[in-house]
Amino acid sequence: MGGSPVFPAGSLFSALTRNWWVVLLFGLLAVVFGVLTLMSPVRTAALLAWWLGVMAVVEGVVVLVGLVSGAAPVSRGWAVFYALVSIAFGVLAILNPLATASVLLLFLAGWLIVGGIYRIVFAIRVRKHIRGEWMLVLSGLLAVALGVMFALNPLSGLMVTSLWIGALALVYGVLQVIAAFRLRALKA
Fold this sequence. Notes:
It is built from eight helices and no strands. By secondary structure, the chain is mainly alpha-helical. It has a domain at 12-104 and 153-187.
């Protein structure tokens, strides 16, 4: 049994080998993003501020929906406070990401601390109904610790975060390019 493996015509793998160039394109885009991020971490931070803003608004809305539907496992006051903090942070970041990026880690630090405390309270309240609540407590503690570290040195945190994202995108992109050429070789 020599030669290339044969896969059914409609399989996902067959589709990937036919369209290997899509994987290559994603890889090249990730490499470009990684290089640009490493060259301009502050600009990347502005983009990150915008994305974090979108995520914060979504999370705030989800908490409000849970509150309205009566599904919030914490007190109404705490749920409203957390939702409003998330939405306020999100709106600021979406409307002016460049200005937000300059103080990104200070906003993020506050959001992480509030969010970490929220997760801890949530885990304590639902501990009789779920397993593994310690993971929620741990994630809350880590969020609080990260928030405190970012608050103590926001500029360093901003640069390091952007540089890590750039490096990871670069590695991801290179791996995608390698995978694309391996898929292309299987097609031949």
